Amino acid sequence: MVDLSGRKALVTGGGRGIGKAIALELAAEGAMVAVNYRERAEAAEEVVASIEDEGGRAFPVQADVTDFEAVQAMVKSIVAEFDSLDILVNNAGIIGDSYLMMLKPESWREVIAVSLDGAFHCTKAAIRPMMRGRWGRIVNISSAAGLMGDVMRAHYAAAKAGVLGLTRTTARELAGQGITCNAVAPGIIETDLIAGMDEKRAEKMLRMIPMKRFGAPEDVAPTVAWLCSDAASYLTGQTICVDGGLKM
Predict the structure, then answer these.
(1) Is 99 noted as a catalytic residue in this protein?
(2) Helix (H, G, I), strand (E, B) or coil at 234
(3) Is-above-0.85 flag for pTM?
């Protein structure tokens, strides 16, 4: 059902965690992949090397997604390398723990800037090359936090909820251009973002998941790849929860 042969993709925050798994999955299904990173060039280069070792084509591309001009330059470099851009996965995001009453405005702005502003910047920059090809797939990585809220993470939950609104508006505006836009809302996934979670909190959250386990990045990636394929051509503006039943 999933065949991405010849498609050109950009995965933001593609050097680690969910982004890494998505980049590898898209490449395994035949896509050429630009692996975006902000600071960790080594991690992105390792992902590229893994793709190339399997016979795929990829390259690392640096850009801070909070900087619109940097994002525009990144997309131009991808189009120059691949001749087009068909798939955008807005995965870049950061997190932090703080109760709302203690949350610093600068922390709020930083999380919103990466997760929400970044998705807007990349989507805006990618639309034109997708429209030229009359085909495109945009997948925004939201979160269960954006649907349910999350204690100590008002900024993260707000950003991920905003991503869902951006997803639906993008879907409505671009449906006539052959471009779909959907969101994937992972539950609690074992990545660097939750590596420092308090043990008691982790146990409490685990009890909320019917499947009784945290997810892995590899649990999320196949859903993203399917949304990027022709098999999902009549699906747009939707949110798919990959959360072990957490939101059920």
Answers:
(1) no
(2) coil
(3) yes
